[in-house]
Design brief:
Blueprint (H helix, E strand, L loop, with lengths): L13 H45 L7 H36 L7 H32 L1 H10 L3 H8 L3 H12 L3 H36 L6 H16 L5 H20 L1 H10 L1
Helix pairs in contact: 1-2, 1-7, 1-8, 1-9, 2-3, 2-9, 3-4, 7-8, 7-9
Length: 275
């Protein structure tokens, strides 16, 4: 096995999880980014286009009937943005699985695509079920909803790695998270802040166009140009969804960290190999 290949089954502290997350992205950036971009690009582009149409209509002060114009574009932009996040989730987890199964850590996009097709509907239905469970937690009491949202952040990698059903995966997540909830909460917060900062950089063109439109005003002659500017800047902003791979990779390494802390399968395997 390649000595440079990243080890998953290993106990890591907070800093170690952050370091290995970005080390993984650095070592696999070309295939990881390219596979996510190729597969999710249609949804990202459509999300950007409809978001640009929505924003250009919202700031078109010459329109007498704004709300009917922005309702459908906004809804469609949210649908396609959700789909882009979902596809990025599937692709990133698929990359992780293929990487782990590879002896050298060298993989190609076709291997990822085959794994995406294999796990697509399982992750889709898991995501829907997860949303329902966490949603009910928030409806009845806020605290159970927050607890479940953090605990079930592990559910995708649990199902993929251990092959458990949905209910069994929920029980497995709560078992792994026991005694480590605050650690997991802190990890997700820090990673979320990092993602948010990087996404903010991609949102800058959108903010620039927005301020330009507000301060210069919009008339019938310039509204077409403004719409093009909004669509272009919104497409750039929508590519920020690709950064979601950071939290996906981070929570995956945390899963293996928790399993190793509680059950030490990696250590037991090393002892067995020595024998």
């Amino acid at each position: 096995m390649d000595q440079n290949k990243i080890e998953f089954r290993k106990v890591r502290d907070f800093g170690g999880l952050l370091n290995v997350t970005f080390d993984y992205i650095k070592k696999n950036f070309k295939v990881l980014f390219k596979s996510n971009l190729l597969i999710s690009a249609p949804f990202i582009l459509l999300a950007g286009v409809f978001l640009g149409i929505y924003q250009s209509s919202m700031f078109n002060f010459t329109s007498d009937n704004v709300l009917p114009q922005i309702g459908i574009p906004f809804l469609l932009s949210m649908v396609f943005l959700f789909l882009s996040y979902f596809v990025i989730t599937v692709v990133t987890y698929s990359h992780l699985l293929v990487y782990m199964q590879s002896e050298t850590g060298t993989i190609d996009i076709d291997d990822i695509w085959q794994t995406v097709k294999k796990n697509f509907f399982m992750i889709l239905f898991t995501g829907i079920g997860n949303t329902v469970v966490v949603g009910f937690g928030f409806i009845f009491l806020i605290i159970p909803g927050v607890y479940l949202a953090i605990a079930l952040s592990l559910i995708f990698i649990v199902r993929l790695e251990e092959g458990l059903g949905f209910v069994a995966a929920i029980k497995r997540c709560t078992k792994l998270i026991s005694g480590n909830w605050w650690f997991t909460f802190g990890l997700l917060i820090v990673v979320g802040i990092i993602q948010g900062f990087l996404q903010y950089i991609l949102y800058l063109p959108n903010y620039i166009v927005m301020f330009f439109t507000v301060f210069t005003g919009v008339n019938s002659e310039s509204s077409g140009l403004n719409r093009i500017l909004y669509i272009f800047s919104s497409i750039i902003s929508s590519f920020g969804s690709l950064l979601y791979m950071i939290s996906t990779i981070s929570i995956s390494f945390h899963y293996y960290n928790l399993v190793e802390r509680k059950e030490a399968p990696g250590l037991l395997q090393q002892i067995e190999d020595i024998k």
